[in-house]
Structure prediction request, 773 residues.
Amino acid sequence: MTLSVTAPSDATHQMADAWRRQTSLRRLYTAIGVGLLIVALGSTMWFADEANAGHFFDRLPHLLDFLSWLVPKDWNDVWRAMFDIASPHDTGTQEFNFPLGRAYVWGSFYVPEYFELMLTTLNVALVSTFIGFVFAVPFSFIAARNLTPHPVLRLIVKRFMELLRAFPEIVIAGLFAAIVSIGPIAAIIAIGLHSIGALGKLFYEINENIDMRAEEGLRAVGANWFERVRFAGLPQVLPNFMSYTLLRIEINVRVSTIMGAVGGGGIGEELKLSISRGFGAKTIALVLLLFTTIFIVDQFSAWLRRKLVGEQAFMMSA
Amino acid sequence: MATMTADQIQSIEERFPQVFQRPFHKRFGPLLLLGGIFLYLLYALWFFNLPQVMRESHWERLPLFLTQWISYDVQPIFRLDEPQITAKYPRFSVLGPDPNPDWVKTNADGSVTILIDGTAKSITFNKTQATIIANGETVAVALGTGKPLISGPVPGWITAHEDEVVADMGFAGEARVAVDRVRLRKRFLGWANFVFDTRSPFFGKSASEVASLIVSGPELKPGTSNLALAGDNIWNNAQWQHGDVWTKLLQTIVMAFLGTMLGGIVAFPLAFFAARNITPSRLVNQVLKRFFDFMRSIDMLIWALFFTRAFGPGPLAGSAAIFFTEIGTLGKVYSEGLENIDDKPREGIKSTGANGLLVQRYGVMPEVIPIFISQTLYQWESNTRGATIIGAVGAGGIGLKLWEAMRTNSNWANVFYMVLLILLVVFIFDNISNFLRRRLSRTIHDYNRIQAEQG
Prediction:
């Protein structure tokens, strides 16, 4: 340090000591923090390993075993599975009964089974996002501090949206599965309700940051609450709303796949079946289809969001 | 206000063409979008076959299920074709093996009175006659003629079938009267046997009795202290399975923690190679970024299914699934965070002749660490919620237990218990994560302010 080269006074010594003390204290805290984190990681790993049916180190050598069933004997079967074309390996088992799932639309023109399932999953995501959007917009204006018609109403709506957000989707799905029968409608209701809460929160946070001058102008000419929200609030926030809604579609496609696996219909169900039975070609076809769809949806949504709100869309994309 | 002449209107129109002559897509875009959405919804209506699904759905079950979340019922049967009218309770009834509830009264003349909701809703019967009281009305049913016969008018809350008379008493319960038996359902608000189940020696004792037994009572089970016995009885409560539920809940929390932390640890170094301002090789950047996209796009579900097959069902599979997805998600947000940093501190460190690693340590990390931690916390929070769902496909945790409890359609109180626990956990974790992120954002804020002050 250059300080110690020039004639060191008492004051500089004191300063250097104080700095050193501070640094060592901070290092100690960091070390304690990292130590705690390591202990937490170690103990949770041990706990997860103990509670699991198969143990990590026992199963590790078998980790790549899945390749034995996943890699199909004939790679062409992947395409046949995807497009429902009869396979020469068909022996009547479920593993190769590709043409069975064809959904005939017109004459001999059919939609392959997996595309139809993927479409179901996509539609579940889109319809539930739509439900979320339709309810979240009015709720968000009621819940925004600066635009709320009444503070008590604001509190009620806010708590309600919090509840919708935290309530496990799977319970709503299970409840409605018992009412409207198991399938995509129960999944739509569950994901839709969750989306209301999730979108509503993001929306009202945007609403609270709007420029209030337009609203004041409308208030001055005697506009009622609906008119103020419609003409002063909505035009300012709509691009951001759209951006978050697109983000929600991305998330909901994933969620509706998972919902499918627990009985919500769509591609998740088929995927679960296929992996648990060890159908190589079918699994690869499904994973490929799902992967491509999610990738396309993500890229399309990212492109549209960039057009709507610019780079801002990627500040907190998680 | 003076009316405008045609000339004035014309001149305004000419001066503001952007308002009056907007391009076609701007004028009709929103309308077309709305029309498109409407058509799509019609298509969805057809695709999901909504009218038929709605016709076949059982909405009357909804209030029933919802009341079962916070209530339980007891369903005794009274046989009338035996010499003595005695109550028969189903096996494993919540009232225990030897119930003698005070709402069943045997009268002096041999008849039995059941108070379903006090005396306002009650039923009194012997072998030949039953009297049902509810909603301020009294209905007499004669049982002696081989068929239950109602004398007088039949009120709306009673349904008379060929061989059975059903009296609906709303939330309180119902009575079903036939010539050879009376079947009752009495509903109680609350959760039955939440602390001790019917097999426990503490069953049916009040809180003070249990407390005094624990403090100074004789050992109920030789060789075990009463405290240990009570703890064991609560933990292994057969009806509520507290022990199992709490263990599974802990598994869910562990899955989210482990998956997110390990994902962060792996994504952290990779993000430095994926950020184009830190690693100048476009090939490495692109390869890593596509790798992150790949990990994210292979859904958490697919990872969960694969790892459930590899490790067997349990939290290890769930942790691994979250871990793999998080490498992608955190890698992406970390590398985006790195690409948005201010380059000046790095240049400053570089100018002192520091090597590459030190430049990252002192020129980059102080700036990004708060952002990284904040985003990791956010992911942890959302994974705590997500871990519940993937649990249902066998990846461990409370999800599967929840799903199984729901499938039977009879355990709604247990479902609600687990839901409350999950809500509590989510609430606590949200608050911890919010608190930490607020602290961090203050750090980020201070950092930016100091930067701004120093120019």
Observations:
- Chain A touches chain B through 65 residues (CB under 8 Å).
